[in-house]
Specification:
The protein has 68 residues and is of the alpha+beta class. It has helices at residues 14-25, 52-62; strands at 2-9, 30-36, 41-46, 65-66. Strand 2 and strand 3 (41-46) form a beta hairpin. The longest helix is centred in the N-terminal third of the chain and has 12 residues, at 14-25. The radius of gyration is 10 Å and the shape is globular. The mean pLDDT is 97. It binds copper (II) ion. Residues 12-13, 15-16 line the site of copper (II) ion.
Amino acid sequence: MATQTFQVTGMSCEHCVDAVTAEVSQLAGVTAVDVDLAAGSVTVTSAQPLSADAMAAAIDEAGYQLTP
Ligand SMILES: [Cu+2]
């Protein structure tokens, strides 16, 4: 089990939280997604550590950007 926290730019409301949660939840092995809107962070729990590329693609798909 791995827990990673990513910084995401562009999230501003609950709709953004839902969009990001939905996309990231679709990644293989993901069991929990916790978005902190105030902090602009997304904490992901997954069976295997996620690659930055996979996470960036999911965030991009939702319409936001991963902060390197
Ligand atoms: Cu929003």
